[in-house]
Design goal:
- By secondary structure, this protein is α+β, with helices and mostly antiparallel strands.
- It folds into three domains: about 80 residues, Arc Repressor Mutant, subunit A (Orthogonal Bundle); about 150 residues, GAF domain (Beta-Lactamase); about 100 residues, Enolase-like, domain 1.
- The strands form three sheets. The protein has a six-stranded antiparallel sheet with strand order 1-9-10-11-4-8, sandwiched between helices. Strands 5-6-7 form a three-stranded antiparallel sheet.
- It is elongated, with a radius of gyration of 26 Å.
Length: about 350
């Protein structure tokens, strides 16, 4: 695992070994094929014999930076090798092309009035530019304090339910007005609910307050039914939603060259609770990089998860990518960090961050 405080001790390698390791990783990133000494000798200006390169590769293997697949004479990077590479190349001030920063700033500026649209726009943007699966976990609304629940009559014999949090966020839902409630009844219902549950954290309301309300309202069946529906709405607000998005080319990578591997990937992303548990485990970090079974189990062995934390009115959320170990770390890691910081800044101050405020 790597986060914003981690460093790999690159001083354990000689300069020549570092150059060879960089070359091995770059070749593997391009082709997903084990790299042999002849490729390194022919394609890179090392001025070394293939025998010397093989000897140095043997030392890199002994130190755990590369490994040899059973079916090949070449070598491929290990997780330790990738982590060396990440620490070696990441420059947060220079790794993101300015054009992509401006594109992200424009997306935020165009969608700042709707948190949902803003998160969806950034989510789609990260999938497109990374070539991997983009992940976004909405803010944890269960930690918010309820300011009020407002109920309105709307056209089509429906009720509009607006859940307002003290942090300024609101969520809207619709219900069928089965009992054809009048405006006077709805106003009374608003007062009845809000005098009893406003000012309480969302995660406590559904467990305690609504049970009491429904017991109080049992003499009026319509009131009990409506309160049950509103309790279901509170449960929806409380859910920590997570979404995935990817471009078509993602699944065409060599790492997913069989139906079995594609099915396994689909199972991984279908189990969203695993990702939410991981995000919450590293919720104090600005960014985190997990590789292989560091994520969760052997099914993740060929994958890497990179994510950053953002905050919306002090409620935590996460944005990141799940992809192959051959991804473009040089841009992807700074982009995730920059995106999470920009979302936080935009929702806190209403202004877009300067280009280089990473």
């Amino acid at each position: 695992m790597l986060n914003n405080t981690d460093q790999i001790d690159n001083n354990l390698l000689t300069d020549r070994q570092k150059k060879l390791l960089r070359a091995i990783i770059l070749e593997y990133l391009k082709n997903a094929q084990a790299v042999g000494s002849k490729v390194l000798a022919n394609c890179y200006d090392f001025d070394l014999s293939t025998a010397t390169i093989r000897n140095e590769m043997g030392i890199l293997a002994e130190k755990g930076y590369i490994e040899q697949p059973h079916t090949s004479a070449g070598r491929m990077p290990t997780e330790k090798g990738y982590k060396f590479y990440i620490n070696d190349i990441i420059d947060f001030d220079k790794s993101i092309p300015e054009q992509k920063i401006k594109m992200m700033q424009q997306l935020l500026s165009e969608n700042y009035q709707s948190l949902d649209r803003m998160l969806r726009a950034i989510h789609h943007f990260m999938a497109k530019i990374s070539g991997q699966l983009s992940i976004i976990a909405e803010p944890d609304y269960s930690l918010g304090i309820l300011r009020s629940i407002q109920i309105f009559n709307i056209e089509g014999n429906k009720l509009l339910i607006v859940v307002n949090l003290e942090c300024g966020i609101e969520k809207t839902f619709t219900l069928h007005n089965t009992y054809s409630l009048s405006d006077a009844q709805i106003n009374a219902l608003n007062r009845y609910i809000n005098t009893r549950i406003s000012g309480k954290p969302i995660h406590k309301i559904e467990k305690i307050a609504f049970n009491d309300l429904i017991l109080d309202a049992q003499k009026e069946s319509f009131l009990s039914d409506i309160l049950s529906e509103i309790r279901n709405i509170i449960q929806q607000v409380k859910q920590y939603n997570i979404r995935f998005e990817g471009e078509a080319g993602f699944i065409n990578q060599p790492e997913f060259n069989s139906q079995e591997k594609i099915v396994q990937l689909l199972k991984i992303i279908d189990n969203k609770k695993d990702f939410l548990d991981i995000f919450q485990q590293y919720a104090t970090e600005d960014y985190t990089i997990l590789m292989g079974d560091e994520i969760k189990g052997n099914e993740f062995k060929d994958l890497v998860l990179i994510f950053g934390r953002y905050r919306v009115m002090d409620l935590p959320g996460f944005i990141g990518i799940l992809g192959t170990k051959r991804m473009d770390y040089r841009e992807n890691i700074p982009m995730i960090c920059f995106a999470s910081r920009m979302i936080t800044e935009m929702t806190t101050t209403g202004t877009v961050m300067p280009c280089r405020a990473v």
